[in-house]
Design brief:
The chain is an alpha/beta fold. It contains seven helices and eight strands.
Length: 248
Amino acid sequence: MPGIPSHRVPKGTPYDALRVLCALAVHPSALPRDNVQTVSNGISIEFSDVAKRYDLRVVFRAVSGEAQPGEVLVITGPNGSGKSTLLSILCGLLRPTRGEVRYRWNGGDDLPRDSWGRHLGVVAPSMAVYEEFTALENLRFYARVRGLALEESDHRRLLERVGLDPDRSTTVRGYSTGMAQRLKIAQALLHSPAVLFFDEPSSNLDPSGQDWLEGQVQTLVDEGRTVVLATNDRREMTWGSRNVSLAG
């Protein structure tokens, strides 16, 4: 693989990360040349009476909500209430037992389900960063996996955006939790998605890391992106303009 030392190419992508990557695959022609500019065509998400059960276990019943471009929808609830499950349904990774999820261009025409992955990015614990790679090598690898035609300058600009030094030669193994989270956000932004999903984004971050993350979320909103955030952190609950609470 060009740009990545052969001895560092991973032998297999972890299942959860691969599942997300497959769902988010983007054709190179769909990628804007400037991958950090303001979103010109926002996407809204609407879901109504969504329910999920596994055999006899009911995860949640009749959950409804929406998120518009330039807004943050916060999904709250105790551990085990189904926050991550609802995110997976809204991403198109899971089918609801009942109910409907719709993506719309600026509240207008619906997006076909099979095109959702072109327009959304995910930051979640299941998303892998490869410790034997540098940050720059991680972005190169994920761009290749997703089929993105990115220039070296695109990768460097994304790392600078999240406060990581693109010239840092040390591998991710030596990164703090906060630095690894910054890299995950850069990976999620590779294809300039109109919709961003965050699952417990500030877990294990110190107060300064939480301050930084809040600023990043606000930047995404200012760019006209739609943000959906699952959390039970009281501070993160205040970031949203809309709220959905799962009882557990």
